[in-house]
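Researcher: Go.
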Amino acid sequence: MNITHKNTRHLRFQTIIFYLLVLLATTLLAKLSIQTNQHSDWTATQRHSLSETTITLLKQIKEPITITAFISNNSDLKPAITAQFDRYQTQNPLLELHYIDPNFAPDQVREFNIQQEGEIIVQRDTRQEHVYDLSEQSLTNALIRISRDAAHWLIFTEGHGERPLSDANFGLNLWQQQLHQKGFQSRTLNLAEHSQIPDNTAVLVIASPETAWLPGEIDIVKAFIEQGGNLLWLTEPESNTHLAALAEQLNIQFTPGTLIDPNGELLGISDPKFIIISRYADHPIGQAVPSVTLFPHAVGVRYQESASHHWQAFPLLTSKENVWSDIESTSKPPEFDEMVDGIGPFDIGLLLSEEQQRIAIIGDGDFLSNAYLGNASNLDLGIALINWLVGDDALIQIPIKTGNDIQLSLSKTHSMVIGLGFFLALPILLLIIGTVIWWRRRHR
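Model: Structure:
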């Protein structure tokens, strides 16, 4: 083919068009990479992704939150902090991250009382929370605490055999610790020694008293309720009569006897007094409980309409139809007597409300005790109840954030295989490879 000026011009024009298209494609790809943020976490414990708990919380934050990390510029921890908060800011850009080098800001170190390298301050308006590690659990709990409008005080009554905040099995200290992580404050109160309930009480907790109350103590609680106070009353089959006057004020009645659930055998529960609740009312508390809850020793509770005072009653926890109430049976296992015992379904959780006042009566306190708090979704129910009682409705449906299980458990067989592999198999393999290489070189 003869090369002419026309062919040369066409070739140059095609070359120019080619480079322009390459430049355009590169520009479009660069723009697409900036505007698109897609990632995939293939780790077994999703250690590079945020949990649904955190994502739900971040979507509910509507006000700016400032996060300040006190860390040196050359610290190896700084990239990890940046990567962690990038995940948070992707879900909610209202979170602002700032760095302060403590070596060059002694005044701010003293102002915020910084104790260690890498300490993080989470601030909302005038409130602040300290975070001492970079785990998602610590950061999310700090955001939950800072999201509350005010500090809530939970007052636990004592002096009548109530569940203590320190006992190993019967007590409530594990539940109390979880509440503290969520921003709640708590203390005990003996009504025989104090004539009134503190004005800043967010919720009064009566946890399964075992002895009768003095009339004056009951009057203090009744006055607290008449003034609009919030109450969580945990009771038991044998002891609900100790506060009969309080039950009368709230228009509630307890079913005689102890509830018996024959459905437990299907789940491997041998004790028929364990009540399994899988049916929750269409309520934010019920929606916050992801699975069944277990109540080891429960009594039925129902609301009775009264002309003197009308509460808005809402049954929260309802048993199955074949659950029955054992009133007089002495046999083991208990046997149903249709002439005496009552047949279900029974409500063992009742919510009462009036304007801004909220009350919850649960026919069992064992489900929140240290011995049973970890069963099924008992903890989720316990946290949701308190969030509803204090009026933090936006936080009710945020599930409990627990740490990922990253422990490696090996059986004896697996441990032996790994040990023999490093002790025998690997040296023998290296010896064979070396021998083969030596033999080939020798016979070249």
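Model: The mean pLDDT is 86.
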